[in-house]
Amino acid sequence: MKSPFVSPPKDATTAIIFDTEHTEAFGELIKQHISTFNAQHWDASGRQRLGLKQLDADGQLCAGLAGRSFGLWCQIENFWVREDYRGQGLGARMLAAAEAIAWQRGCQYILLDTLNFQAPEFYKKQGYVVVWQQQHYPHGDGCKYFLVKTKPE
To answer: What is the pTM for the complete model shown?
Structure first.
């Protein structure tokens, strides 16, 4: 049974009871409502998925990158290189390939995020600039970095 959440009253008579719904399906429903609202203000049909993968000799995934482009922006949502392939240049080459696709699509900026124990220095070496840091994420000693790269002239 779902437990209700009672909003603190602004005054003595206006408490509101909200039902809780912590499911993926509910999150997708809200996302769809936002998309419907946004469609009244811009044409989202230009959104394009971007995906790259590298398989090893056995056909197993050893690196993958997933994102999307829209207008002047490309967002790298997920980027992973298997541990035994790290440090060999594969990640830099895959990221450069994704950037080339984004630039060809007319993007001027690429946005991504990374955690402090993941790859902030790697992205900085590739020309990305930290535009915001979310301190204490998800706990006191963690940090999430949001980085952007601008298309070269």
So the answer is: 0.85
